[in-house]
Amino acid sequence: MTLRREMGPVAKSFLALGMAWLALAVLWGAACASAPQFDLPLDCDMQTDCFIQQYFDADPGSGYKDYACGRLSYDGHTGTDFRVRDLVHMDEGVPVLAAAPGTVRAIRDGMDDVSVRETGTASLDGRFAGNSVVVSHGGGVETQYSHLRKGSVRVRKGQKVRAGTILGLVGLSGRTEFPHLEFSVRVDGRPVDPFKGLAGGPPCGPGEAPLWSPQALRLLAYEPTRLLGSGFASRPPSHEEVAHRLLEQSVFPVDSEALVYWIRVAGLLEGDVLEFSLSGPEGELLARHEQLMDRSKVQFFQYVGSRRGADRWPAGVYTGRFVLRRLGPRDAAVIIDTSSRAMVGN
């Protein structure tokens, strides 16, 4: 006689749950194995002309953090933002490249290049990505290239592309305040951080199997803070003038209305201490400003200066200096210490 023991309802439930988890693990493992490795999605020097300003939000809650546990992100951000140096660089044309072989699934073009600060989000009618291209790589993996320049899209729907194929140019369309490419990765419709990949990894730092190619990963070394530029002006400058490179003057007449030293920096953290100073030809301090950051900022613009009195400016070399200190476990570390010089003459 053969005895057979029937499973009870609880045991059957656990078995079904286990089988479901096993199937999910198999599918997820297959996705990990089939996911392509991505090359850089734009043709730009990542040391001098371009950099990542905002990363995928790795915080599942209401806060935000980037993959390295830094603050270069915002709540709910699902892309990687590659910023170009300024609007002049954008106008010169920075090619956006397919990061891996695939087929163009969708395109959009024709939206103007204008900051959302000027137009407001209502005018976008939900088209927050602006001019964009979506490429399908098979296996449920796709990449999206957003905020492209108006009239720059060079591919059509259904077109096969190779890694490195030019899709368009970096622009300022959609919901953005600065010229950049937002590069997004989705697997079966789910946003994925290419620095973390699909296999997971440590809480802070790249995942065990990032989706970037080894060469791309080397070029994308994490940099929490970067000086975007500095210079002089003969009056208080605006952010727009700086972004259009309208203030690259380094020689000033002795009867200039004022002398102003300005800086642009990306990636400031709450608690950072900023020091700005302007000194005359004999080293005399003409202006100084110190600021404590009360909150983190993705980008920051500030200046310090002095107006001319009744007399002319003494001829000679004037020096502007910017120092950024960041509080550490024991003391403050100097993150940036830079100076610029301008000549005042007859």
Number of strands: 18
Assign the CATH class of the largest domain.
Mainly Beta
β content, as a range? 35-45%
How many domains would you count in the coordinates? Answer: 2
Oligomer: single chain
Order of helices and strands: HEEHEEHEEEEEEHEHEEEEEEE
Helix content: 10-25%
Low-confidence segments, given as residue ranges, are 1-7, 9-31
CATH homolog superfamily of the largest domain: Glucose Permease (Domain IIA)
Number of helices: 5
The major pleated sheet works out as:
8 strands, antiparallel
**What is the distance, rounded to the nearest whole angstrom, between the alpha carbons of the first and last residues?**
115 Å
Helix and strand content put the structural class at mainly beta
Commentary on this structure:
- The structure is a single chain.
- The chain is mostly beta strands and 346 residues long.
- The protein folds into two domains: 36-219, Glucose Permease (Domain IIA), CATH 2.70.70; 226-345, Immunoglobulin-like (Sandwich), CATH 2.60.40.
- 14% of the residues lie in helices and 37% in strands.
- The protein is built from five helices and 18 strands.
- The protein has helices at residues 9-34, 87-92, 116-119, 214-219, 239-243, and strands at residues 50-54, 80-84, 95-97, 102-108, 131-138, 141-148, 160-161, 166-169, 180-187, 190-192, 226-233, 251-253, 258-268, 273-279, 285-292, 297-307, 316-327, 332-345.
- The strands form four sheets. Strands 1, 2, 4, 5, 6, 7, 9 and 10 form an eight-stranded antiparallel sheet that branches. It has a five-stranded mixed sheet with strand order 12-18-17-14-15, with no helix packed on it.
- β14 (273-279) and β15 (285-292) form a beta hairpin.
- It is globular and about 70 Å long.
- Residues 1-7 and 9-31 have low confidence and may be disordered.
